[in-house]
Amino acid sequence: MAGTDADARDGGGYVVFRRVGDDQWCVVGDVGRRPGLTARAARVQAVKDACGGDMAAGVEYAVVPRSEWRVARQL
User: Fold this and answer.
1) C-alpha span between 43 and 40 (Å, rounded)
2) Which of 10, 14, 15, 50 could crosslink 69 through cysteines, CB 3.0-4.6 Å?
3) Are strands 61-65 and 24-32 parallel, antiparallel or unpaired?
4) Per residue of the chain (75 residues), what is the pLDDT tens digit?
5) What span, in angstroms and rounded, lies between the C-alpha atoms of 63 and 49?
């Protein structure tokens, strides 16, 4: 999940998580942001891209900008 300066040029990306327990989350994937989409549509598309298709019904996902994920790991 290493980012580069290319993130800024290509629109960045997202880290996608899936809830696996009450307070537990699992990383599903790290995907690029699709240009031309609104922020909400881009997050929905990120989940679809990370899951390889449609989102599973009844599953809760969270999407964090890749840049925020890098900052969070610096603690």
Assistant:
1) 5
2) 15
3) unpaired
4) 444 444 444 558 999 999 999 999 999 999 999 999 999 999 999 999 999 998 888 999 999 999 887 777 777
5) 12
Cα distances from 61 to residues 11, 12, 31, 36, 48, in angstroms, run 21, 19, 14, 22, 10
Asked if 12 and 65 count as a contact pair (C-beta separation under 8 A), the reply is: yes
Residue 38 CA to residue 63 CA, distance in Å, equals 14
Number of C-beta neighbours around residue 39 at 10 A: 10
Q: Which residues of 5-28 are buried (b: 16+ CB within 10 A; e: fewer)?
A: eebeeeebbbbbbbeeeeeeeeeb
CA-derived radius of gyration, the chain: 12
